Amino acid sequence: MEARCSSCFFTAVLLCRLAGMAQASCDFPAMFNFGDSNSDTGGLSAVFGQAPWPEGETYFHSPAGRYTDGRVVVDFIAESLGLPYLSAYLNSVGSNFSHGANFATAGSTIRPQNTTLQQSGFSPISLDVQYNEFYEFHNRTPVARQKGEVFEKLLPKEEVFSKALYTFDIGQNDLTAGYFMNMSTSEVRAYLPDVLGQFKNIVSYVYSQGGRFFWIHNTGPVGCLPYVMERVPIMASQVDHVGCASPFNEVAQDFNRGLKEVVMQLRQELPQAAITYVDVYSVKYSLISHPEKYGFKHPLRTCCGHGGRYNYDIHMGCGATAMVDGEEVMVAKSCDNPALHVNWDGVHFTEAANRQIFKHIRSGLFSDPPVPLSSACLRMPPS
């Protein structure tokens, strides 16, 4: 009975602490993002060419460096914090870094891939390269700002780096890379500790550069993405009740469990850091398993694509053209109403889905500790 009362007491104390934290609000002057196509705002497009129309059609009304019809989750995060959309670090035209920078590129992985973008579809700008970019940006910014004028206006002050929110959304491509190289599920699982170890190192490096506030997304249900289900064969018994490939989702959940353990270790090793682990997997799977609840009609079928069970063809990506009667015409077109689709192009979510994801994660209900985005600067007090 005494042990039970003690447990109740500590639970009550924890709830009171969380309530106090939820009422507090942080003032982040900037964001620095690391990731892949789920949060790319123009990095890959700046290096390898702009993502073609109809990318960006819903919100920007033209291609905007994002692999969706509008905004990605990091855009909604920036909006909610009162910040401008993040300029891609690699984009030299029209960028403003005074409120942060985005180092993410589509196709990026945590662990470097020994291949080219043309060979595999994976970006050479892996997480270690993104950190190197951040390191150079941080250390060269004070020197550049001393020149005054435009440099002072477009680059952040030194104190911004320790007050900014550092967001991470990466890991999906590390899982699919193994499958696309014909590895078995057990072989993919075997290299997860190495991937997670490299992720942990990068967060520690950012901390050593003054980063203190971290918002870390886990990876989504890759087994529900057409580009995975169409490329990697599975048995009918391995398809769940929603229509997703269970083996791939189970590996994603293994990765997420490991990521959560890494976050717990980092909290012990980085005493001045506030690190929030965000379960986007559960939110994304909910959109797919209960689409009507969120206003969607097509949870698996892509909006922008061509052919196949899911309106997806690896050789005919969104915006692809073909010669028809001597004329070049777009064959991988956008659907009439992207807002009814969860999936945009077989790989990425629509703006409507991204908005729903953000609405769910901003409250803290899917976070550990369960604090809202606006309170992500507050460290969890020791129990």
From TrEMBL:
Stored CDD domains: SGNH_plant_lipase_like (cd01837)
Signal sequence extent: 1-24
A molecular function GO annotation: hydrolase activity, acting on ester bonds
Record's keyword terms, sorted: Glycoprotein, Hydrolase, Signal
Family label: Belongs to the 'GDSL' lipolytic enzyme family.
Protein name: Uncharacterized protein
Organism per entry: Eucalyptus grandis
Lineage: Eukaryota, Viridiplantae, Streptophyta, Embryophyta, Tracheophyta
